[in-house]
Amino acid sequence: MNPDHTTVMVRRHTVTTRLTHWLNAVCLGVLLLSGLQIFNAWPDLYWGQYGADGDHAWLSIGAVRGGASPQGVLRVAGKTIPTTGVLGVSTVDGSAVERAFPAWATLPAFQDLAQGRRWHLFFAWCFVVNGGIYLLASLASGHLRRDLLPARRELAARHIWHDIVAHARLRFPTGEAARSYNVLQKISYAGVGLLLLPLMVLTGLTMSPAINAAAPFLLDLFGGRQSARSIHFITAALVVLFVVIHLAMVLLSGAWNNLRSMITGRYAITIKNKEGMHD
Amino acid sequence: MTDSVLTRRRFLLGGTAGAVALALGGCDGAGEDGTAGRILRSAGALTLATQRRLLGQHTLAREYTEADISPRFRVNGTSMPDSPVYADLLEHRFAHWRLSVDGLVERPMAFSLATLKLLPSRTQITRHDCVEGWSAIGKWTGVPLAHILRATGLLAGARYAVFHCADELETTLDGSGRYYESIDLVDAFHPQTILAYGMNGKDLSVGHGAPLRLRVERQLGYKQAKYLMRIELVDSLKRFGGGHGGYWEDRGYDWYAGI
Predict the structure, then answer these.
(1) CB A42 to CB B135 under 8 A?
(2) Cβ distance A82 to A71 under 8 Å?
(3) What is the pTM of this model?
């Protein structure tokens, strides 16, 4: 045992945070895979109110025929990118099949829009109820204001830059500073929880013809149903990007300690003994 | 449609437990039958109940302007019904075609196309949203279904209108591939629910369902049945097709297509 340091166990996450976090992870996983299944039914994205055959798609995943075997392509921003094997054409049971996202990325694995919708809409309800419980509980307990919203001084450019440099060098806060989230954590957690995920729900609802009748302002907010569908897809990509970085940071900044804190709530911080005596 | 009433609490309790079990199970076939399938389908009932509460009876779907109309409206599903009966009707420009309205009505009636065109009409520029994800905007002209149903009157017990179509989307020996659809009376009496004979200022084309198609503007494209031949008022959807209330519903899609 290091005589200069004391390890202190702190209560990091409430039971509400832990439960809703894991249920949220399950929901997002199913929503992503079933969402890609739904996307595969019409792998073109448009801007505006309408979009179908003959209308300009800003993103399109498809197959080009003509050669010996069809080639998968991603068309985006006027460029055609060969993506055979992953997008457009991929292998199912040993043979090349024309499908936008490959079987390993969709739920169900085989092409079935009806089942994809069932999974997606069921887990969308779970996601909304679970997220609503988390947000209400966090608002009531002060978790949102106290732990997630950055303080004004934390938003100073110099402070943020300092944290970015420290993260890039894989130097994470220790001691007292590790008791609370750093500003990059606060910005990303609050950004995902209060902006990206609600945006997923709202753009998803904007694709519903019934919700369009009940709340037509959503169509104006997002610039039309097809725009909402595009934003839904882009936002999903951003959520995936967040999850990738989140997982990397969890692993790099003490995988076991982080995982334990999200399961049991207990998080270990190491305090220099001089500092620790104040406790 | 399921007749069982699913309360919100039961959905939440069963749903949360079910969500984890389903996701952890991760089985591909779970969407189909059995307990997992039933749990997944329960979301459809919750969506119907919630959207109906949000919508109210007569909230209108957005109507667009002439400038918003899609330059090309995709023809989806059947583009030409493959039957001698339809071919004959088409050859005579639907002069012999009749729309029968029967079942649980006080006065079964049959309408010719000319008669329908003489009845009060409604024209609306609305967006058609396919379940696949695409949308197209078109201008539809037709008779409000409510007008027809007031003319025939309804008998006690009538709960759904079933739309029988001329087209077979899947060619089968037993006729199970014939297209049909159904809506309940809330949508049947909605002011934008029309039997359309005109599109973008012209007679409805064959690709879009000539001589008559349904428009139910607060639901997805597969509810907008084309090539209408008969409307039957019924108390239950069980005895039609696979018992789920429509061609695509029998193939796994939700009967309520509000989202």
Answers:
(1) no
(2) yes
(3) 0.91
